[in-house]
Amino acid sequence: MLRMKLQRIMVATKPWERGLPIAANHARQLAQAADAEIVIVGSVFDSAVSAGRDRGDPNAHRTQDRTVAAARAALERLAASMRDCGARVTTQIVWGIPPYEAILAAVEEWRADLLVVGTHERGTLHTRLTDTDWHLIRLACCPLLLVKGAAFSGYRTILAAVAPTRAHREANGLDQAVLAASRSIAAACGSTVRELESVKGSDAQAIIDAAAHRCADLVVVGAAPRRGLAEDFVGNTAELVAGELPCDVLIVPTRVRRPVASGLRSQVG
Question: By the number of CB atoms within 10 A of the CB, which of 19, 127, 219, 269 ranks highest?
Answer without folding.
Answer: 219
